[in-house]
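Predict the holo structure. Ligand: S-adenosyl-L-homocysteine.
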Amino acid sequence: MDELFPLFLKLAGRPCLIVGGGVVAEAKMQGLLRCGAEVRVVASEATPGIREAAIAGRIVWDERPFLPADLAGVFLVVAATNSAELHEEIFRRCQQAGILCNAVDEPERCDFYYPAIVRRGALQLAISTAGHSPFLAQRLRHELEERFGPEYGPWLEEIGQQRRELFQADISPESRRAILKELSSERAFAEFQARENPASESAPGRVYFVGAGPGDPDLLTRKAWTVLRSADVVLHDALVPPRILSIAPAGAILCNVGKRCGAKSITQEEIHALLIGYASAAKRVVRLQGGDPLIFGRAGEEISAVREAGVDFEVIPGVTAASAAAASAQIALTDRRAASQIIFLSAHRREGELERDLKSVPRTGATLVIYMPGSNYERLARALRDAGISGETACLIVSQASAPQESIYRTDLASLTSVPAPPAPALLIVGAVAAAAKAEAPPPIVEAV
Ligand code: SAH
């Protein structure tokens, strides 16, 4: 069978004929009227709905059986009677006259099919399986209905209006494009939602600060999984992989509030406003962060903001990258034969701050776990040496812990300077416990010519 050609048709003012006057015919009549077609119904009997439309002058009803002359000047015909012979005759005549015909539930007597449709104002999502599986079309329609709620109608209207205004404005085509792209983003939609749903005191929403773990969905806690399954809104950072995001229900709003979201980056205050806005609109809001939300995230500030706004919240911890990296390398961070302290550090500090932090590290043989080591270990290695840590101290670099692309390299502090950084996210473990790791030697650095 040839492929079907998908199209959205303008029917305004076009003469369309419906043969038959039952409930199916009435439904077809409504569909055609919605698009402004000029509808004529030919049927000996008709439903009250068809009669009313005829009395109101919205359609013409000819109270008699079909006649071949009814096809004169017609653009499109829907045959909705219970006579296969009549449908055959209509279809044949339509073919001869070049008129589009649809005989209801008889694919072989159709020039076109009605798709399964999700309608959200001007937004229409049409699905066709070319008759292979109407049930699949129904299922996909339900899924799309969940995913794209009724709010898409008014939202699309609003961005349409903004688009028209932008075309009047005196700005460069490049900036216009950038703004139009941002206006249609998931984030812009999330903001629209938050704006449209005013605070309701009767059914308060809730914010869940949830740890997504290091990347492997199996390392989510059951509680995180359950909360995510029933989320209305998920505000996540860039570290959370699609495999975990897809646990959220199809209808949930997903918004990446990580470093980049849409065209411009989102500020911390905007994140607070989204959390409070959605929760006040009675939504279950999941603030999903990689690893544990309480370690090197902004959860501290977000908790304060949410608490101050009087919004109900809960914190669900996650497996932090240090634990995942240690598990992958098969080392105990506090192996009592080598260390009895751990220090979690962020290398993402202003000039001088990291050096100061390290100076205060007493030489107790504590295991150092360094988050956000950046893409060049030179400064880090120098700072560690300057703090008085021996060049022979074992160092582990764990990249993408728990993900299929995970890699683990071992070196010593003296050689760390010349180790090329593996793909982010990566973590550094420095200390005697790292010596026992299951790891490879780092790949040689490519010499600059
Ligand atoms: N809250 C997170 C840390 C966020 S800071 C947690 O508890 O894990 C981001 C840093 O975490 C990255 O720069 C990297 O150092 C580390 N990280 C996060 N996921 C990681 C992973 N799968 N493998 C290695 N390091 C990871």
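The mean pLDDT is 91. The domain at 206-317 is CATH 3.40.1010.10 (Cobalt-precorrin-4 Transmethylase; domain 1).
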